[in-house]
């Protein structure tokens, strides 16, 4: 066998293993073989669960400094405590679980209770070494947000250009007829939260200089993470501290056209339910076959199609039908946040998919007719996929081969963790 090539030696070894297994099996009575098989399968499943518990990501708790933000003032720079709807929600949730019996502890429903909004829109921008790319994105965002929503310090919101999306009758069917406590009727303006994910360049300085130049005092807020968490970890951290009626995260490279935010708001209004829960995601699915995609390398297009195939296999029905899960431009209504953010685990590239899976698996809510009667139940939180303008931006931090393999493995871990109870819709 020493003279054989490596593939031949591997094949010969496999044949020898199969033959040895067959000879051993002949020595046992036929009735014992099923027991051996069952034992082998049971041990394999047990080993898989143990490994899954070990390798499944478990986010760290935030450091005290990560619950503060930096912003500019007319006199310089200041640091202030971050508002945090999540901490209050978490405390109320744990009290509810403590009040329940141990038998019913797993069935404590999501209350969906969240503090009223203080601004109309919160924009969360995860940033890691983005000093060279973040300025154009901020410029575009400010131009649109000022015109569409105005600033919270404005005396009269009528000064803004444009108008909010209308809500035709077919949307009203899925909305509460009374004022929802998450919308906070008086919410006005916007905020931008830049989550600095352990950058080693001058991302923070560039952002604060921009804030000072445009008088975005206490509107643009910078949160510094002491240790890099990944894009998903940065977005989740920012989402815990938002004050907006609508919450959107956008990539720092400005690849998505920010003025398409209006489309996302309208898309969210199209699917919002009786509890005012809704999600709208930017989609590049309509660009398949366009010049932007065709000009990509054959390897990148192959990996993209392979990833979508894995998605169809490993994700639940509604999520598997989404054409573009990875676009970095997604909007959530405030009422949807407590059904998604507290249960996030993934901090890498596939965090988007976990968000969509959590939306799909959220508790059902009643459908309210225009006369106020309940006409049915809607399972989960509905997601609108909205076509947006998008362009490739140089300087991506993604390693196509390495990160594609990592995303595929991450999908297996994510699906397995939720399927086998490693992750649960319960605070631990």
From TrEMBL:
Record InterPro entries: DPG_synthase (IPR035518), Glyco_trans_2-like (IPR001173), Nucleotide-diphossugar_trans (IPR029044)
Chain ranges of the Glycosyltransferase 2-like domain: 189-270
Chain segments carrying region Disordered: 149-171
EC number(s) from the headed UniProt entry: 2.4.1.117
Membrane spanning residue stretches: 32-56
Biological process according to GO: protein N-linked glycosylation
Keyword Membrane in record: yes
Topology in membrane: Single-pass membrane protein
Pathway assigned in UniProt: Protein modification; protein glycosylation
Family that this chain belongs to: Belongs to the glycosyltransferase 2 family.
UniProt-recorded name of the protein: dolichyl-phosphate beta-glucosyltransferase
Provenance organism: Phomopsis amygdali
Lineage start: Eukaryota, Fungi, Dikarya, Ascomycota, Pezizomycotina
